[in-house]
Amino acid sequence: MTHFGGKPEGQPVNTGRDARPALDEPARFETVLDVDTQRIARVYAEALYRAAAKRNQVDELLDELESLTGQLFKAHPQFEAFLASGVIGRDRKAGVIRSAFANRASELLLHFLLVLNDHERLDVLQPIVTAYRDLRDEKAGRLHIQVRSAVPLPDEQRERLRQELREAFDKEPVLETETDAELIGGMVVRVDDWVYDHSVRTQLETIRNQLIARSSYEIQSRRDRFGSPDGD
Question: What CATH number does the domain located at 32-137 have?
Fold first, then answer.
């Protein structure tokens, strides 16, 4: 496993031309741009996964990708911006990629970065890593699930939720939990674009909206009754 914690070697130099169960809660609607980016990322992730599987390097490559985007890019955001820039030419980027990764990354990762550069898709690298991780988990029968709750879930409740999700999706759930005090109580479970919101905050807002709607209806009914020639 390769970690990219230090500063990339070589500074940019001008080297040439520049599905889910249908429960009550609606899913979030994505923009066309979101969908198009995810589709492109999935295509590249599938090609990369096949190449890594042939070399028995699926997990090792994921470690490298996560180290790249989770460590190097966070430590040096200007380097990520350089790679994703549409203004800087491919030749210049290729030189920096070779200088930064030739002796630090696997041959497969280096080749993949150069392919992305050739197709001017380095700006989609983060979504590709996400798609690759999801694909690896799919092949292993795992499903990442985000759970937000007002307080940390007790072990018993966490296991009960895991069992319910296992039965619902027929996959091994991997829970990614976080606390959100604004929920007051209950939880919000998210799987891809499927969202189940069973939080107290949402329930209170639903009750409030129902009361407002009922009051509006009663007021309008009175107006209609008093406005009618036959009204009492």
Answer: 1.10.520.20
